[in-house]
Give the backbone structure.
Amino acid sequence: MKKTLIAPSVLAADFANLQRDIEMINASEADWFHIDVMDGHFVPNISYGMPVIQAIKKHATKPLDVHLMIEKPERYIETFAEIGADIITVHYESTVHLHRTLRQIKATGCKAGVVLNLTTPVSVLEDILSECYMVLIMSINPGFGGQKFEDITYQKVRKLRKMIDEQGLDTLIEIDGGVTDKNAEQLIDAGANVLVAGSYIFGAKNPTQTILDLKKLLAN
């Protein structure tokens, strides 16, 4: 099993002190920056766009994991690659031609992934898994941070891990939504590799220590 990666969600950062929070992640034991892009159509919220991601990239010393919660993401793949994305994940539910979109992402030099909404079964990915560097399973309904983790996620992770192993692939499983020290170990035991945490990290008194504690917990 690969080591567990931690990706703090910048959506939960203090945008009045964004450079400070980016440098905190740089100095921490975190592995990636998780960047949630929302368009107000695919999800009922709007987050941030290209200028903010460019500003993050300017200071970030770790990979940008860009999660596109937008309709027709194929329209903007090249732009997100140009401004600094290292990994781009698109929702299964957001694009008609998923295979083409994943190939489009890879053509830019970025790693490509698929995201599944809470009630979308993992079985829909059976014929596309070989194109995926990563599959992100939403453990909440996408659009807002701070939501409660949904227990259905454990079952989905186990099913997806079985599919990946049966196909002999190295595809990573990422979890986004309500991740804390209360469910992190169970998620890794079920087969996850990457944990996104927003409010849990940025709402802590000492975010750097919280990241370190999470890494230690998952190293046991």
